[in-house]
Amino acid sequence: MAVGEVMRMEIPSGGDMSVTSPELHVLAVDDSIVDRKVIERLLRISACKVTTVESGARALQYLGLDGDKGASGLKDLKVNLIVTDYSMPGLTGYDLLKKIKESSVFREIPVVIMSSENILPRIEQCLREGAEDFLLKPVKLADVKRIKELIMRNEAEDCKTLSHSNKRKLAEYIDDAPSPSPSPSSSTHDDSSAKDFPSSKQMKSADEKFSSLL
Amino acid sequence: MELAQMQKSLQDYTKSLFLEGVLDSQFLQLQQLQDESNPDFVSQVVTLFFQDSDRILNDLSLSLDQQVVDFKKVDPHVHQLKGSSSSIGAQRVKNACVVFRSFCEQQNVEACHRCLQQVKQEYYLVKNRLETLFKLEQQIVASGGMIPAMELGF
Fold first, then answer.
1. DSSP characters for chain A?
2. In this predicted structure, what is the pLDDT of residue A175?
3. pLDDT of residue A186
4. Is residue A211 predicted with pLDDT exceeding 90?
5. What is the ipTM of this complex?
6. Complete domains list, chain A, with CATH
7. B84/A32 CB distance under 8 A
């Protein structure tokens, strides 16, 4: 799966869109244990898979964005939606939103902010930063249902566009001859042994080390 | 007591809590989330609320008893309690927290002490009422009956 392709619906090759939608996997972030319990139930009763974490830092860790393993570390993980509280100690929901939108891998994941305070500048700030929606606490079942419908609709549209563009890309790939990647190192690469892979600075120096041992 | 009588008592008791403003519609939301697959959802959430609130109230008491009160510590606690009480529908606790926060903003130590007492009072009240409610429910279930769904026509 290519990097950036976080959410996918399984579309049969016939292009039939009337498949049963897979479950959304939602990452819910809230420092309140009571609210975590409630949002988890709201989401589960709305047929979503749920993972709850208690802080923005833990959310980033879960996504693999905390710099430890790098975003590629968790292949089975497919988060389709992040729902986060705004006021949290440490990383606020807004901070978390920014970090997610800054990530090339995760920026496509919709983020919904929850807050008990109806502060218009705060709402505007979040929406400007790319939040999908803003929920006023206490969150109700109707709110979750609405969000889910919104996300599912967006995903269906994305997949429609994507399946078209994927078919086009596939056709282009078959037509194009594979082109070699340019070597990042400035010195000429006059290694006589044939190399089928693009040479990198790292690999070149490893080669150099090896050849110096001979 | 007859099952039907117990169920009626439960309904009347719950209704009174709403009429007194002890509980608000968010509590009904929680009840809607309870079903055969999650028969104890409400009591589980409420239990978490009790545990969380006990901790917060303890921290608040300690913070307000300091020689120099650090409102940067006090306010987040009250905010937390306001949030969790709101999430379970404990309306009077939530309202008491709102008042509390405004006095935190003013850094009025005297008033904050009074607010803490008020919050505690409302908290013990809703705790007491909900424990009674759950006991009534348990009696009904133990007698083989079902918890009647709350009617919203009041």
1. --TT--------TT----SPPPPEEEEEE-S-HHHHHHHHHHHHHTTEEEEEESSHHHHHHHHT-SSSS-GGG-SS----EEEEES--SSS-HHHHHHHHHH-TTTTTS-EEEEESS--HHHHHHHHHTT-SEEEESSP-HHHHHHHHHHHHHHHHHHHHHHHHHHHHHHHHHHHSPP-PPPPSSSS-----S---S---HHHHHHHHHHHHH-
2. 73
3. 45
4. no
5. 0.94
6. 25-158 (3.40.50.2300)
7. yes
